[in-house]
Structure formats: C-alpha cells, structure tokens
C-alpha cells in the first residue's frame, strides 16, 4: 500500500478517523487512467473501480458479465493515475460466492495484479465465509448491502430495498456481521434514509451511501451518471453535476462539420 517516501494519504485507518470526527467521505467510481487522474486532483477520498464498468464502459444491461481480467485491467489503469485516494476494486459476480478458497485466490489476484488497496463484495451472511477468508490474508474488504446489483435476477427489480421491517432487520444484522468480521467500510445502496441512519449510527466503521439518504458517513456515485453521460438512467438519488452528453455531442458535431467543410485542419494545424 505504501513504500517509504510514497505514503498514500487515504488509508482505511484514516477513513475510520474521518467517521469519528464526523467528516464526510466522498467516493466516486473510475475505470480508466485519464478520468482517475482528474478525480484524484479533485480531492476524492475513495475511488471505486466498480463492476458498474460492465454497464457504463461495456454497455451490458447488468453487472454480471464483467470478468476478473477486465476488472483487473480497469484497476491497473486507475492505479497508474492515483496518488491520494484509497482504491477499492469490486470483485465481479461469480468470483467469491459459494467458495471461500476461490474467493481468496481471486482477491489475491486482484491485489497482486492491480496493486489496489482493497476489494468490495456484495452480500451479507451468504458471503461471510468468503469475507473472513479474504480478510485473513490481510486484504481489506468493503461490504455492500441493500440493492446489490449482482443479485438483480433474484430481486427482479431495481426498486428500493429493505422497506419492510424483516428485510431492514436482516440488513442491520448483516451489516453488524460484516463489521464484526473486520470489513473496513460498508456501502448501502437504495434503501430508506431512516435505515441508512440507523445502520450508520450502529456501526463503528464508515457507511457510504448511494441512494441511502443524507445521514450516512459518505456518498458514492457512478462517475458517468453524475456527469450526465447516462441520461436514460434517472433514479431519484442521482444528482447530475453536468450534462456531458450534450457537451460531447456539440463537440463531435462540430468536428464532423469542420472535417467535412475542410475547415480542419487549417494552415496553423499542419506541418
Ligand atoms: O459498481 C459500482 O459502481 C458500485 C456502486 C454503485 C457502489 O458498486
């Protein structure tokens, strides 16, 4: 994670102290070198190399098809760019569920080949054995509960999770079990704000929300969504900070026009 003279600013310990001081944690996804560099310069605390790359980079409907090799490729690109943030890599679907030894060897691959700082897994009691085995190798693990997109075929819908008491109680139990196992942080996706608050107040580790309300310890968004590159995706929790789709279109249209009209390149733009 660090070598002498090249100390990373953001560590899992620092995140814990941020929670204790009530300092909010800002997390964003990135999947490539160029955007990770800009995100780092903006002062982000955690970069998530999310398996949402399957959607926004590769155009898949769900996150399920992305492979471990593809995740490692994205993580390596991000790692070449970053200096300060903690980098967490999603373990893709099928690489940690049901077999904790396989989970460990896949987590080791991600850490060795990408040199990232931590991995993230989705689920609670069902994946606890895998989480424990990965942690036993000294690999930091971030949990992810609520709407866990790798289970979309089980849920059958992307609507808000844990609105009923039984599911909310199970979520809290899972959160406590992940903390007890040694996870350094937890992502909560698309759940009622009151439940987000309850979990954040109960746990010692930082709780980072995406559609989990304002009372958690930090927020995460998918970069392409918050930049307005995915206009068709419009959940209530998404705040768009730009309409980059429109900006891209304008620039691309202008380029096509300039090439077709012979305006580009001009005298100054040639050798
Ligand atoms: O893959 C991803 O981008 C995620 C976030 C939505 C938390 O898991």
Count of DSSP E strands? 8
* Proper CATH architecture of the largest domain: Alpha-Beta Barrel
The distinct bound ligands, ions and cofactors come out as:
3-methyl-2-oxobutanoic acid
Can you tell me the residue ranges where pLDDT is under 50 for at least 5 consecutive residues?
A: none
Into how many domains do the coordinates divide?
2
**Helix content range:** 40-55%
| SSE topology string | HEHEHHEHEHEHHEHEEHH
CATH fold description of the largest domain: TIM Barrel
- The CATH class of the largest domain, by name, is Alpha Beta
How is the largest sheet built, in terms of strand order?
Answer: 1-2-3-4-5-6-7-8
The share of residues in extended strands comes to 5-15%
Radius of gyration: 20 Å
- What is the global morphology? globular
**How does the major sheet shape up?**
8 strands, parallel, barrel
Oligomer: single chain
Question: Considering the protein shown, what is the CATH homologous superfamily of the largest domain?
Answer: Phosphoenolpyruvate-binding domains
Mean pLDDT: 96
Distance between the termini: 46 Å
